[in-house]
């Protein structure tokens, strides 16, 4: 099997399979949460759920990634807060605003959108990688977080780290490897990540928004639920 | 068929010693060798006689031959046609039929172990090779016959190297490249559709002058010409780095010569000297003339998911999209509903069991009382 054939396999059939596992898994997770059951409303609500949802999303949009700095989590752990924000923001830019990735989305979704200049995305990738390394080392150094961290959590960090690094290395032709081999490494790690996500806490990329929406709705509605 | 050395025949044509040394220097550079190797080339040209070449064509379009005849490096072409001389070439040969075949057999016997076999086109293996026969013999038999006594084999073009277009999915003729069938001879792959003409002549000249195959990469291609990607040497590379892409063949970006990545350029994964040697005597090459690289020097480039699909666009995802979404959605809902129903039932059962236990306890208590 030549490297071209391996590459074609990893970006063709294997990618499709991973995508299927990912989609199936995430849909299962989504509906599973949806069907957990809803409590009945016993009194007319004093506010609108929709306004609550919009408010909570607006809040997270205008404040540095996801958490306002006044929260205890950010005040007591500024490193986690800043590195976490860096990582998530960088990852978002890399996944959704790199020209090459938009072409992938276009193929998968059927539509695309404008990209950011590659050097900016390159910078975002560095930000994400640095953020991730910081988070991981902090997690390891701090005895409390180390105790709280299981094998799955370490693997989560690793499996997100690998596609990021291989993709970045591919762009810069690093490690003395040629583009094709790094491309294969990138595709294999991406394919594996797609399979891994639904079975791990990385599925918080979806469940986070479910929780956020529910919270927003609840705080907006101000109803009575025994 | 004289047995004069290359230098002698050049002298006959009135080439001075000075010009001869210049030519040797040029050839050294063209072969991708270091300058220190130049004396070796000179000595080789002074002592070597002509190199007989047998050129076989199987499942091909003769495009590689067409490219070869347009090789504009005059020194090497001259070398090839006057001093190397093609002893058997189906397209360029004046002779035909049994006469040509006989001549080929004569060359094979007369120059056994000394001639270079050039193969153009892939070899069909399905149905006993009926899809390509010459003079009643299958391509496979012809290849094996000529390969047996060859000094080295050069697989010219992607078809001979890797199967190429005839091998494209679903490969109706069972086409394969030369190296699938011949194992005991040095094989040099010179892929391309067609290869850069100078790369063909330079590879033949390398064997003629240095008596050994050039350094090869893992796919059997001469490293001197296939060591770097088209992307590595692309004149549009700065636009790639800057993220300036042509979105269509006729937009502002295309007119400004921006990167063709989004239009399907396979430059980053394609190893070839296209961007450096170029075509038609260094005039241009596909990317320069506003067409993305199609990756023709790589195995199975026809099945890479579309010439105009970006390299990062997974091949065939669009076709699979509808089906995948449907299956996934239905499966996801079914799984979730099933699971929650199962959970409900489990809960009910637990509740029933609890009730039963309670009743049992109550009745026991009543009995005790």
Please outline what is shown here:
Chain A has 226 residues and is mainly α. Chain A has helices at residues 3-11, 13-34, 49-62, 72-76, 78-97, 99-109, 118-141, 143-148, 151-172, 179-196, 204-221.
Topology, pairings included?
The complex is a heterodimer of chains A (226) and B (369).
Chain A: H1 3-11, H2 13-34, H3 49-62, H4 72-76, H5 78-97, H6 99-109, H7 118-141, H8 143-148, H9 151-172, H10 179-196, H11 204-221
Chain B: H1 6-12, H2 17-30, H3 38-47, E1 53-57, H4 63-69, H5 74-84, E2 86-89, H6 97-110, E3 116-120, E4 123-124, E5 133-134, E6 137-138, H7 139-148, E7 152-156, H8 157-162, H9 164-167, E8 175-176, H10 178-181, E9 187-190, H11 197-210, H12 223-226, H13 237-242, H14 252-255, H15 274-277, H16 317-368
Q: Can you characterise this structure?
A:
- The complex is a heterodimer of chains A (226) and B (369).
- In chain A, 75% of the residues lie in helices and 0% in strands.
- Chain A has 226 residues and is mostly helical.
- The model of chain A has no long low-confidence stretch (mean pLDDT 85).
- Chain B has 2 domains: 49-226, Rossmann fold (3-Layer(aba) Sandwich), CATH 3.40.50.700; 228-331, Cytochrome-c3 hydrogenase, C-terminal domain (Cytochrome-c3 Hydrogenase, Chain A, domain 2), CATH 4.10.480.
- Chain B has helices spanning 6-12, 17-30, 38-47, 63-69, 74-84, 97-110, 139-148, 157-162, 164-167, 178-181, 197-210, 223-226, 237-242, 252-255, 274-277, 317-368, and strands at 53-57, 86-89, 116-120, 123-124, 133-134, 137-138, 152-156, 175-176, 187-190.
- Chain B is elongated.
- The model of chain B has no long low-confidence stretch (mean pLDDT 84).
- The chains are: A mainly alpha (226), B alpha/beta (369).
- At the A-B interface, helix 1, helix 2, helix 6, helix 7 and helix 10 of A face helix 13 and helix 16 of B.
């Amino acid at each position: 099997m030549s490297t071209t054939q391996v590459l074609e396999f990893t970006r063709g059939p294997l990618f499709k399979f991973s995508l299927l596992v990912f989609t199936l898994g995430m849909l299962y997770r989504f509906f599973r949460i949806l069907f957990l059951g809803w409590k009945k409303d016993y009194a007319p609500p004093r506010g609108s759920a929709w306004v609550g949802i919009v408010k909570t999303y607006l809040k997270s949009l205008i404040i540095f990634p996801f958490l306002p700095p006044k929260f205890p989590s950010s005040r007591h752990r500024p490193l986690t807060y800043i590195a976490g924000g860096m990582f998530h923001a960088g990852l978002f830019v890399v996944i959704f605003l790199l020209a090459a990735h938009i072409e992938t989305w276009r193929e998968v979704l059927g539509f695309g959108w404008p990209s950011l200049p590659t050097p900016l995305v390159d910078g975002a990738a560095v930000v994400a990688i640095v953020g991730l390394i910081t988070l991981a080392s902090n997690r390891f150094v701090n005895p409390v977080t180390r105790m709280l961290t299981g094998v799955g959590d370490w693997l989560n960090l690793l499996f997100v780290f690998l596609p990021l690094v291989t993709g970045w290395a591919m762009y810069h032709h690093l490690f003395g490897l040629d583009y094709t081999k790094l491309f294969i490494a990138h595709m294999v790690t991406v394919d594996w990540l797609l399979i891994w996500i639904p079975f791990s806490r990385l599925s918080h990329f979806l469940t986070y928004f479910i929780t956020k929406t529910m919270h927003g709705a609840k705080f907006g509605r101000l109803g009575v639920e025994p | 068929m004289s047995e004069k050395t290359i230098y002698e025949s050049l002298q006959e044509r009135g080439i001075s010693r000075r010009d001869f040394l210049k030519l040797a220097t040029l050839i050294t550079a063209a072969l991708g060798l270091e300058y220190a190797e130049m004396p070796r080339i000179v000595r080789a040209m002074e002592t070597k006689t002509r190199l007989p070449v047998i050129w076989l064509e199987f499942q091909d379009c003769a495009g590689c031959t067409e490219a070869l005849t347009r090789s504009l490096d005059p020194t090497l072409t001259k070398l090839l046609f006057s001093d190397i001389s093609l002893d058997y070439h189906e397209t360029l040969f004046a002779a035909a039929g049994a006469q040509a075949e006989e001549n080929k057999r004569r060359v094979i016997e007369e120059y056994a172990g000394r001639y270079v076999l050039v193969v153009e086109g892939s070899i069909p293996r399905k149905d006993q090779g009926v899809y390509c026969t010459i003079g009643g013999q299958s391509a496979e038999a012809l290849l094996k016959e000529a390969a047996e006594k060859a000094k080295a084999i050069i697989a010219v073009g992607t078809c001979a190297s890797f199967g190429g277009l005839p091998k494209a999915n679903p490969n109706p003729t069972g086409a394969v490249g030369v190296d699938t069938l011949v194992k005991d001879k040095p094989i040099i792959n010179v892929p391309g559709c067609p290869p850069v003409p100078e790369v063909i002549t330079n590879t033949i000249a390398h064997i003629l002058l240095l008596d050994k195959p050039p350094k090869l990469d893992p796919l059997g291609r001469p490293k001197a010409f296939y060591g770097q990607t088209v992307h590595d040497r692309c004149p549009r590379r700065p636009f790639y780095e800057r993220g300036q892409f042509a979105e269509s063949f006729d937009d502002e970006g295309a007119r400004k010569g921006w990167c063709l990545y989004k239009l399907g350029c396979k430059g980053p994964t394609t190893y070839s000297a296209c961007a450096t040697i170029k075509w038609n005597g260094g005039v241009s090459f596909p990317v320069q003339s506003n067409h993305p690289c199609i990756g023709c020097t790589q195995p199975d480039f026809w099945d890479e998911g579309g010439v105009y699909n970006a390299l990062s666009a997974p091949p065939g995802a669009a076709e699979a999209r509808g089906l995948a979404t449907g299956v996934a959605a239905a499966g996801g809902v079914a799984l979730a509903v099933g699971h929650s129903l199962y959970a409900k039932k489990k809960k009910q059962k637990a509740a029933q069991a609890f009730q039963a236990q309670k009743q049992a306890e109550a009745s026991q208590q009543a009995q005790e009382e």
